[in-house]
Specification:
heterodimer; A: 399 residues; alpha/beta; Rossmann fold; 2 domains; 7-stranded mixed β-sheet; 4-stranded mixed β-sheet; 17 strands; B: 288 residues; mainly alpha; ABC transporter involved in vitamin B12 uptake, BtuC; 11 helices; globular
């Protein structure tokens, strides 16, 4: 009981610690709200993928004088940030507060699948566009039908899972790997959903799942899992994992000498820290996401991200998050700050983003990167649902 | 054999997490819910030394351990001493310190976010196979276990083999009676609290070589430490060590032979059994 009181006190303290960045000279700035984890389980992921892109976008827009409105005027952007402590209840409260008390013009979509889905009803109720860059779910058709304000940009669970199966099936067909797969997953909504979705796809593609285990989120020692996987003598290793366990599984696999020709870990494989931590060992590692690092836009984006935020962008959702802000930017420049018109505009128009041209089909981007691979120190896309620029998959050779 | 060694290595890891809290709770009677944050702070020290100074992360101990000792001493004297002084009973002190340290944990998380940022902190150190009886184990985990053995050994000797240690044990048994035999109870309590904090931070340094940390992860360690300390019995260093090893072994046995998904269930089942049949903990004294 007392602890709950303490939680409430802490919550209100967190709410009052609002950060306001931006400038207020010239024409009245357009006010943006942002709510995402700064503390809690997803804070580290948000600190890599979400917050730096908001910082970069605000910096770049204001540096070139602000958004160029229809009437020719320039309006700078201003951002109000809230920490939701990775708690969906707090996300919803903060969105309401941004809309009713701070009276912001627009709100940047929250971070992660769970928090975006939780906030979808309140975004819809208040009539704010929600361009979700970090949500992956198979419920996209249901959610977009129910909430006209939500837009998805990272693809669906099934697309992610079947793409991995396609990549492995192709390697098998080319005789590069055998048909034995060891599959593990984190026992959490994301990991369970992907494991369930991928199992029949793997079987249908002619694979035999020789090892299949789940482990709780936050497991401190994954060596029993890796030992078990190794004992099953697999040709490919697939882990539907979250950041801390992606790191731990990889380290343990290296120690145990789990030598497979195809090694896949899900979230965090695309983080620069992953390549940084394991160095040359990651060559040939497959993971969720990927981008086409060869386009001029993407090269400029990576350079600007490093320069403005002082850290490298990740090779998956970072650029998607930035592109989602470009969507808002281009819509506001086209139709102004009328939110209803902006929602209408987003659902109908084509946008020029760092990810290439974007067009929402039924409120969702259907061409996304699904599998990436570390090749020569860069995590490049090797499979997508129809994007150009994928590199051929290479076989992993030892650690 | 594999399972036994893996379990012992994990148990040693747990003892590094819990032994500091065992001192703080057992002697100073402070259920320090900000314990995990101290561990994370130690880990950050190691991360900084390794990445910015390219030194061995263990050199961080040179400033982390004295720093954590001083900081915890200050926390006890300035923030917790007033609570101890006005507490009418042990129960009241526990409730108040739980609230105070719970609040402190938020403050620590905020400070660490400001100083270190919110991303993951991970690096590779000694992540190479070390063979024991032919099977490979992570060298960093083996080193961590060795450090755990050294720290626990030193603490055991300190508590059971020195005069100050005797005072610490006396305060753990009965603070009121201890003051009757001219033991400076406030000083001994502050010393134990500071020592507990220093040990926890040292644990953080070692754990950072194989666990991925971020500013908000402290509470995970606090929870684990709480279970171990309560299982082991209040105020007994041995209890915390044995409980850590039991937990490590149980989790590894379950993960290897049954299903890794059940490790948490196994840990809490053990915890429940101990609470049911020995509510005072494995090595605790029955309250008369």
């Amino acid at each position: 009981m007392k602890r709950r009181t303490a939680l409430k006190v802490a919550a209100s303290a967190a709410l009052t610690s609002v950060l306001t960045i931006g400038s207020a000279y010239g024409a009245e700035p357009i006010r943006f709200g942002a709510v995402a984890p700064k503390t809690g389980a997803l804070a580290a992921g948000a600190a890599i993928t979400h917050w730096p892109n908001i910082q970069l976008w605000v910096h770049q827009v204001n540096e070139r004088g602000g958004l160029r409105m229809k009437d020719g005027s320039r309006r700078k952007v201003e951002i109000i940030e809230y920490d939701d402590r990775t708690n969906p209840g707090e996300t919803i409260k903060a969105v309401e507060r941004l809309a009713t008390q701070d009276k912001v013009d627009f709100i940047v979509a929250p971070y992660s699948t769970g928090l975006n889905v939780a906030a979808a009803p309140v975004f819809a109720k208040l009539g704010y566009p929600q361009v979700a860059a970090t949500a992956i779910t198979d419920k996209i058709p249901e959610l977009t039908q129910r909430y006209p304000s939500i837009f998805f940009a990272l693809g669906s669970t099934t697309a992610l899972a079947s793409s991995v199966a396609d990549v492995l099936a192709k390697m098998k067909a080319e005789g590069k790997i055998g048909n034995r797969i060891a599959m593990v997953n984190v026992a959490d909504a994301f990991g369970i959903e992907l494991a369930e979705a991928s199992r029949p796809i793997f079987v249908k593609a002619g694979f035999e799942i020789v090892f299949n285990r789940s482990y709780p989120l936050g497991t401190q020692d994954l060596s029993p899992i890796v030992k078990g996987a190794k004992a099953s003598n697999p040709d490919a290793f697939v882990a539907w994992s979250y950041p801390p366990d992606t790191f731990a599984l990889t380290e343990q696999s290296k120690i145990e000498g789990l030598n497979v020709k195809a090694y896949y870990t899900a979230v965090a494989t695309a983080f620069p820290a992953y390549g940084g931590k394991f160095g040359k060992s990651v060559e040939g590692h497959l993971g969720a996401g990927g981008v086409n690092t060869d386009t001029a836009e993407m090269k400029a984006y990576f350079a600007a991200h490093q320069k403005v935020t002082g850290k490298p962008a990740d090779y998956w959702a970072s650029a998607v998050t930035y592109a989602s802000l470009q969507v808002l930017e281009q819509s506001i420049e086209a139709v102004g700050t009328d939110r209803k018109a902006v929602i209408e505009h987003i659902s109908k128009s084509t946008f020029q983003t760092v990810m290439g041209p974007w067009k929402f089909v039924n409120q969702s981007i259907d061409k996304v990167w699904t599998v990436g691979q570390w090749q020569g120190g860069v995590f490049h896309g090797v499979a997508s649902t129809g994007l150009p620029g994928a590199k051929p998959v290479i076989v992993k050779t030892g650690w | 054999m594999d399972i036994l060694i893996t379990g012992l290595l994990l148990g040693a890891t747990y003892s590094l997490i819990a032994i500091g809290l065992s001192l703080q709770y057992g002697v100073a009677r402070i259920m320090n819910l900000a314990n995990g944050e101290m561990l994370v702070a130690g880990a950050f020290g190691a991360f900084w030394v390794f990445t910015a100074q390219t030194l061995s992360p263990f050199t961080a101990a040179l400033f982390v351990v004295p720093g954590a000792f001083a900081l915890n001493w200050l926390i006890y004297r300035v923030l917790l001493r007033p609570l101890v002084r006005r507490a009418k009973s042990r129960g009241m002190l526990e409730v108040e310190t739980i609230l105070a340290t719970f609040g402190m944990s938020f403050a620590f998380v905020g400070i660490m976010l400001l100083v270190f940022g919110g991303s993951y902190f991970t690096y590779s150190y000694l992540a190479e196979p070390y063979r024991i009886l032919g099977s490979p184990y992570g060298l960093n985990r083996v080193v961590a276990s060795a450090v755990a053995v050294v720290i626990c050994g030193l603490l055991y000797w300190g508590v059971h083999g020195t005069r100050t240690g005797m005072a610490i044990r006396a305060v753990a048994v009965d603070p009121a009676a201890a003051s009757l035999v001219a033991i400076d109870v406030p000083r001994v309590s502050a010393l134990s609290f500071a020592l507990g904090g220093a040990v926890t931070a040292a644990g953080g340094i070692v754990l950072s070589t194989f666990l991925t940390m971020d500013a908000s992860i402290g509470v995970v360690f606090t929870m684990k430490a709480l279970i171990i300390v309560i299982m082991g019995g209040v105020g007994d260093v041995r209890g915390a060590i044995i409980a850590s090893l039991i937990l490590g072994l149980a989790e590894t046995v379950v993960a290897s032979l049954i299903d890794p998904g059940l490790t948490l269930a196994a840990a809490y089942l053990l915890f429940l059994l101990v609470l049911l049949f020995r509510p005072e903990g494995l090595f605790g004294r029955r309250q008369s």
